[in-house]
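ok so for the tutorial part 2 we go from a plain amino acid sequence to predicted C-alpha cells. step 1 is just haveing the sequence, like this:
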Amino acid sequence: MVGLIRSGLVLGVLFVVVMGVAPTAGAAQSGFAFGRVGGNIRPYTVTVASAGGVGTSGAVQVAKTHVTPVQLASLNRIARDTHFATLSATTSCSGTLPDVAATFVRVGAHTVRVHGACMPGYQRLLKALQAAVGIRP
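step 2 — the prediction. this is what the C-alpha cells look like for a chain of 137 residues:
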C-alpha cells in the first residue's frame, strides 16, 4: 500500500512538472495590474494580487474575483517567455491616433505602457490577463 501511495505521489509530481503548472520560483509573488489610460475613453485598472485576488477601479467589470494558482503560473510564464521585464516603460506605435487610449501592464514593479498594438509579446500578456479575469478587450 505504501509503495502505491509513493508511486502515485511521484506520478502526481511528475504530472505537475511535465504539464508546466508549477509556478516558477519567486514569480508567483509578483502580482499583476493592467488597464487603459488616456485617449477619450474612460480609464480602468484591474489588479491581480500574488494570492490571486482580483480588484478593479474605473470603467471595467470582471467575471472573476479570483485567479487560480495554475492561471497565475501561466501568466508568469507568459511574462517570462515574452521577456516582459526587458520591455521599455513607454512605447508609442506609429500610426496610432492620439485620441486612442493607451494600455498598460504591470508585472511586479515593472510597468509597460503601450499606445497602439505594435508589440506582439505585450499584447499576448495583456490578452492573457484579460482572459484570466474574464473581460473582453
